[in-house]
Amino acid sequence: MRIDDGTETGGRSTVNGSITVGSNAVISGSLSTVNGSITVDRDSQVEDVETVNGGIRLASGVMADDLESVNGNIRLGENVRVTGNISIVNGKIEIASGGTVADDVSNVNGDITVYRSDIGGDVSTVNGDVTLTDNSVVRGNLIVEKPGGWRWSEKNQRKPRVIVGPGTQILGKIQLEREVELFISESATVSTVSGEMSLNDAVRFSGARP
Predict the structure, then answer these.
(1) Domain that includes residue 130, residue range
(2) Largest Cα–Cα distance in the chain?
């Protein structure tokens, strides 16, 4: 299913198939699919974007409300504005420079990478690595949750890798419900680390990456 460049129309939904929106389009309704990806080209405006089995890709300058997937990656180009949440169960989240997310960014399994962007809520994961860098700002908390289930044993699990890169500000706190590999740049601003680790447990580094 394709919506052409410059089109103004309502939302679209499908069960099996992808949805592609051209550039400079205005979609006044949700885009949803069950089995398929959703791609929105540059400078378009959309509302909620939802898929079950498939990725979501927004090109530079796109404006959107909530982004949600169960199994699939979410990738945002430069200067994308999200007025709600970004949420995945199994998949990576990548936000390029100049992005703005008004609320939370979260997943269960998969890496979260944020470059020079402003996150209005929390950034949270269970099993994924988190990298916040290039003067990014998190106005809520950075949270690594403890996995549920009686079979989970921390000593037998890989520790998530959390990097708070150069110039990054965590205006809330880093809340760790499990042990992680924690790296904090000497030029980052972090007030406190709570839970299973403390600020003293962090490895401080200079340069772009640890």
Answers:
(1) 122-148+157-210
(2) 54
